[in-house]
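Sequence in, structure out.
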Amino acid sequence: MRALRDPIPLDPNDPNYMFHATNDINELFFQARNIHLTKGSITNGAKVGNLDARWVVFTSNGTPDTEDAVTHSLGRVPRLIIPCVPDKAARVYDSSTANTATTIYLKTNVATVAWKLIIA
């Protein structure tokens, strides 16, 4: 499966505009159809299906709204963090510390929440 590319700007005055636009939409749907997520148990550092993403499993600290430094194995600074499976009602959000290629800095509004996140 080819990685998605940045869209090529299309000129609406081009006589082939609809052809190119339709091709781009078809390619997007084809690639979205081929996305697979993890089956089975979720473990820290595991690859997320066939995506360039990793699972991060951690428990936030005992004080709400306090920064947690969480290591990860993505190998680059994450562009996207998707909270998936908290063990209780809570919100996770970015801290003011910049994320790195090995560590993300997060805060949780509730104490001691077990999180499963996707980072990409």
